[in-house]
Amino acid sequence: MKIVLGPSSKDLGEKIAELLGVEMVPVDFKTFPDGESYIRLEGKVQNEEAVIVQTTSPPQDSRLIQLAFIADAAKRNGAKKITAVVPYLAYARQDKIFLQGETISIEAVAKMLKAAGIDNLITVNVHQEKALAKFSFPAKNLSAISLLAEHFKKKGLKEAFALAPDKGATYMAEEAKRVLGGECGYLEKHRDRYTGQISFKKKAFGVKRKTVIIYDDIISTGGTIVAAAKILKELGAKKVYAACVHPLLVGEAEKRILEAGVEEVIGTDSIPGPASKVSLAPLIGKELKELKSG
Ligand code: R5P
Predict the structure, then answer these.
(1) pTM
(2) Is ligand 1 within 6 A of the CB of residue 125?
(3) Alpha helical stretches, state H, 128-276
(4) Which of 219, 225, 265 to mutate to test the pocket of ligand 1 (most atoms within 8 A of CB)?
């Protein structure tokens, strides 16, 4: 097995390779003046299982193209199996037709990756697990919530209330509770499909004078966390933290969240940036180890 260092996840790829004690294949890349992508493998993959680590956070489209090009190059250069580790899987939120005339974006992405030569995919806390059913090859979802909860445990936040900002995120609050103890609950969120505006159904939680950690898969504009933090403050929460696997943090999202009274935003290196305080390397490394020996 060799780890191919996709340009969007070079540091994570290096950490995984070091953990596994396997060789890395650097990738030379550039963008031509007209915007087209170029990639070249700077190592051999002949008869190897090539594991490409490449997240597809913004700019999603060029990162997807880079991933497809790397896979194609690996295939042409004799890789016997190609696994793509894509911590943040772009377009997974469009896994069905919501409004007439739309596409199922993730299905189109799955077809493109298959055509590029990818045989196997590993992702982390994909927005909807059922999005992976659109892949015609094995696609596995890992969860990094325990890693986030461990981070809080080390900070001394044992028994903090674990809150899911919507029903779909309940499994995250429950997973965190298994690590930190304490209680958990979820809010009922509604997002207007046209304006994107978020509203919550009022719910009474026993969070008075408690520390609360909100767990979500993605923080994008921060609208969900800001609205949830407001409710928690009204209910008398002492401190509120926000944790997510994929800190997209578009524009001034983090600033808005902190201004809403949240102590800190903790994310993973699924999307590298200032909020990426937890590495996915141990989680992905463990999965690849099983793949290697299996
Ligand atoms: C949606 O259901 C996701 O789980 C996140 O809650 C959402 O993507 C967060 O987006 P934003 O930060 O823009 O509210």
Answers:
(1) 0.95
(2) no
(3) 145-154, 170-180, 223-234, 253-259
(4) 219
Q: How far is the CA of 181 from the centre of ligand 1 (A)?
A: 25
10-residue block means of pLDDT along the chain (294 residues)? 98 98 98 98 98 98 98 98 98 94 97 98 95 98 98 95 94 97 92 82 85 97 95 95 98 98 98 97 97 80
| Ligand 1 and 48: CB distance under 6 A | no
**Catalytic residue list contains 154:** no
Both tokens of residue 231?
Answer: 């409710």
Q: How far is the CA of 218 from the centre of ligand 1 (A)?
A: 5
Which residue out of 15, 75, 177, 189 is catalytically annotated? 189
Could you read off the pLDDT of 36-79 as tens digits, one per residue? 999 999 999 999 999 999 999 999 999 999 999 999 999 999 99
Report yes or no: 188 and 169 within 8 Å, Cβ to Cβ. Answer: no
Tell me how far apart the alpha carbons of residues 253 and 251 are, in angstroms, rounded to a whole number.
6
